[in-house]
Amino acid sequence: MGYVVADLDAAVRFYEGLGLGPFKQPNLPGVRTQATQYGRPVTNRKLRNMGTHIGTTRIELEFLQPVENAPIQEEFLKRRGEGANHFGFKVADVDAEAAKLERKGFKAIYTVTFSSGIKCKYLDTDKLGGVLFEFWQPPTVGITSPPPVMPSP
Q1: Residue 115 sits in a domain of what CATH number?
Q2: What is the predicted pLDDT for the residue at 27?
Q3: Count of domains for the chain
Q4: Domain containing 42: what range?
Q5: Residue 62 included in any domain
Q6: Whole-prediction pTM value?
């Protein structure tokens, strides 16, 4: 579950004070090899994020603070303020899962690929609930430890 926040450090302090955490920055294997936002190549995208698992579940709470050239989160923050931005789903094939929603009229608004094989795609689900869907597939090469539960591009 991804939440956009204006101040990552303040959000982490607040929720750790409630007993959640510890929050950690994701360590994604590989380097970005391709990224697009709204169908255009993107560079210099900067986003701060940290996450933690909720209790003993595999559900992750992630906070994302837009820093530079992150229009998806920047627009969300301007339009709606802080809050739930996306649900992330680990899948075997990002393109196949995304295609199912695209056939129903949903639009892919952000994609990213890493040299390790990690692939993520955000889809705009404005037709229902105003929360984005993030599909991501885990790394396929160069992995010596279990992949993270939900990477943030």
Answers
A1: 3.10.180.10
A2: 80
A3: 1
A4: 2-137
A5: yes
A6: 0.82
93-131 core/surface letters (b: 16 or more CB in 10 A; e: else): ebeebbeebeeeebebbbbbbbebbbbbbbbbbeeeeeb
Q: Are the C-beta atoms of 51 and 152 separated by less than 8 Å? A: yes
CB burial readout 67-86, b (16+ within 10 A) else e: eeebebbeebbeeeeeeebb
Do the domain assignments include residue 151?
no
Q: Would residue 144 count as lying in a domain? A: no
Q: What is the pLDDT of residues 107-141, one digit of tens each?
A: 999 999 989 989 999 999 776 678 899 999 988 77
**E strand residue ranges, the chain:** 2-4, 32-37, 40-41, 46-53, 60-68, 83-90, 107-114, 119-124, 132-137
Structural domain includes residue 127: yes
Q: What is the pLDDT of residues 48-69, one digit of tens each?
A: 999 999 888 888 999 999 998 8
With beta carbons less than 8 A apart as the criterion, state whether 140 and 117 touch.
yes
